Amino acid sequence: MKIYIASSWKNQKAVITLAEYLERYGFEVDAFCRSNDKRYVFHWSELVDNEDDLANYDAIDMLADPRTQRAFKEDSKWLNWSDCVIMLMPCGRSSHLEGGYGKGQGKLLYIYGAFPKGEFDVMYGFADGLFRTEEIDKLVGILLDVA
User: Fold this and answer.
1) Which of 5, 37, 38, 61 is packed most tightly, with the most Cβ within 10 A?
2) How confident is the model at residue 37 (pLDDT cuts 50, 70, 90)?
3) Burial, 58: exposed, middle or buried (Cβ in 10 Å; 0-12, 13-18, 19+)?
4) Which of 36, 136, 44, 46 is nearest to 86 (CA)?
5) What is the pLDDT of residue 54?
């Protein structure tokens, strides 16, 4: 099974840890923040020197930049390649769009990680399963069953 991990750069270490854990079980995993000979990795620092300067961009300006266009095409390629999307929580708008796109394309969608009290969305009901951080073995078991 080919798995796309959707998450935030703030979770970079957790994304890589999850990818490596899943790979030990034989899954092929794309982690957006892990560069290799097959994947281009985009980071905001290609656009600005200071993260606060991102406030000078809106969505239209950002998407007009050739670097973000390349990043979109790269992430889309890997999302289309996958059989399954795992949204590693907490994550932002982009990850939620990736999860929704994947589910809409008929891919499996699992949401995994921290679920703080008071933060929820009824649309998570679209997911094939939700798993708290301590339930990683349960998630892997299900992935192995459906693979």
Assistant:
1) 5
2) low
3) exposed
4) 136
5) 85
